[in-house]
Amino acid sequence: MAMREIRTVGDPVLRTRCEPITEVDARVRSLVEDLLETVDTEGRAGLAANQIGVNLRAFSWNIDDDLGYVLNPRLVEVSEEEYQDGDEGCLSVPGLWYPTKRAWYARVVGEDLDGKEVVVEGTELMARCLQHEVDHLDGMLYLDRLERSVRKKAMRDMREQLA
């Protein structure tokens, strides 16, 4: 197991749609261990495989003392009428938080290392995490979901941060 380095904005792996996991082998088992160890730090809610440079569909979460992972997750349900507009951040966009509209409830279906179905669902922070991490696996960042004026500010803030 290893605490892995987080890839940040500008790394092309973050904009690449992750490949499905077709076989659970030693590499996938090691990936899950690394995802769990890397997310198990205060202030970290979720971590997608591509955020540590691995182009496979897997993510981990660390919400309210619940640490877990899912392979090949599919976002199968979100609340249609209830939304949340809180600030969202990302380990791959360090130090910057912006209001991001997300569904209040979300449910993801995937599998565990034994090939058994896993259902992960929740409201508020867990729902935000599930949506955020599936976006990562699809090559999206939360910045892509910002309203236009907020996104412009985010891009300006990132440029200033890098200067």
From TrEMBL:
Alphabetized GO MF terms: metal ion binding; peptide deformylase activity
Cofactor binding notes: Binds 1 Fe(2+) ion.
A biological process term (GO) from this entry: translation
Cofactor(s) needed for function: Fe(2+)
Binding site for Fe cation: C90, H132, H136
Highest taxon of the lineage: Bacteria
Active site: E133
Enzyme Commission designation: 3.5.1.88
Keyword terms: Hydrolase, Iron, Metal-binding, Protein biosynthesis
The reaction(s) this protein catalyses: N-terminal N-formyl-L-methionyl-[peptide] + H2O = N-terminal L-methionyl-[peptide] + formate
Pfam families listed in its UniProt record: Pep_deformylase (PF01327)
Job of this protein: Removes the formyl group from the N-terminal Met of newly synthesized proteins. Requires at least a dipeptide for an efficient rate of reaction. N-terminal L-methionine is a prerequisite for activity but the enzyme has broad specificity at other positions.
NCBIfam families reported in the protein's UniProt record: pept_deformyl (TIGR00079), PRK00150.1-3 (NF001159)
Homology family: Belongs to the polypeptide deformylase family.
Full protein name: Peptide deformylase
Organism field: Actinotalea soli
Lineage: Bacteria, Bacillati, Actinomycetota, Actinomycetes, Micrococcales
Gene: def
